[in-house]
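Handoff note, outgoing to incoming analyst
You'll be picking up this chain. Sequence as last confirmed:
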Amino acid sequence: MLEAQRAHDVLARLPGSQRAALTLRHLDGLPVGEVAALLGRSLRATETLLVRARRALRQIYLEGGARHD
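Most recent structure output, in case you need it:
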């Protein structure tokens, strides 16, 4: 499987708020403050969300990233 497709599959498995935060921050390149404003969260809550999202993304990726339906 292509790495880009695998990354997309892993990202799709995250909850919507985590997926949105990671996309805005790392794919769109927005600063955390702008991500927070767009998501209607405080800066601190957004930083926590991003930490949890990265942790979840890493875990899913290491498990293989494929859906097990």
